[in-house]
Design brief:
This protein has 179 residues and is of the alpha+beta class. It folds into 2 domains: 94 residues, Alpha-Beta Plaits; 67 residues, no CATH class. The longest helix is centred in the middle third of the chain and has 28 residues. It is elongated, with a radius of gyration of 25 Å. The relative contact order is 0.28.
């Protein structure tokens, strides 16, 4: 039994053409679409419904946890575990604890952002079905691609090819499924 294709992909020359194609695909009722571009296109992200609200929360929570652990460890070491009264300063000298706590908060936020993005984006991904499309390597240079995925409820190979042909792409290709 052969696997169904991953999707149907159209190649466009300009970002405006890709943006219009995404709008047309959304207007036609396609829900499982993806776009590829050599640079970010805010209009496309909005049309595709891509939300970035998770990443700032990951960074904030991780930074808060890192700062709390750093502050707590400094308090424990200086006031509880091994208290030294040097020059009459208080054992809980909170102003001295703040710089290290901020540095650790930044470190934890950065590390959590990296790990969170890798998990959210399912990276590193060494192979993706779209890599098999002829000319797709130009998606990182000067071409723009729209892919309608096979698991879209309205997926019909012939109808999608006809729909994409109306949008005047440079090429329409079938994306083979992963093996």
């Amino acid at each position: 039994m052969t696997q169904p294709a991953y999707g149907i992909m159209a190649e466009f020359k300009t970002p405006e053409a890709l943006t219009e194609a995404v709008r047309a695909a959304k207007h036609a009722g396609f829900t499982r679409i993806d776009a590829f571009s050599p640079f970010p296109l805010p209009g496309i992200a909005k049309e595709l419904g891509i939300r970035t609200s998770t990443v700032p929360w990951i960074a904030f929570v991780a930074g808060l946890i890192g700062a709390a652990i750093q502050y707590g460890s400094q308090y424990w070491m200086n006031a509880v575990d091994y208290p030294l009264n040097v020059g009459g300063r208080p054992l809980h000298s909170w102003p001295a604890f703040i710089p290290a706590s901020l540095i650790v908060a930044i470190l934890w936020a950065g590390a959590a952002t990296l790990i969170g993005l890798l998990l959210i984006l399912r990276l590193p991904r060494l192979h993706h079905p779209v890599f098999a499309v002829p000319g797709f390597e130009r998606a990182s240079e000067d071409r723009f691609f729209l892919c309608i995925l096979h698991d879209d409820p309205k997926f019909d190979n012939a109808a999608i090819r006809e729909f994409l042909g109306v949008l005047s792409p440079m090429a329409v290709s079938e994306v083979p499924a992963c093996e």
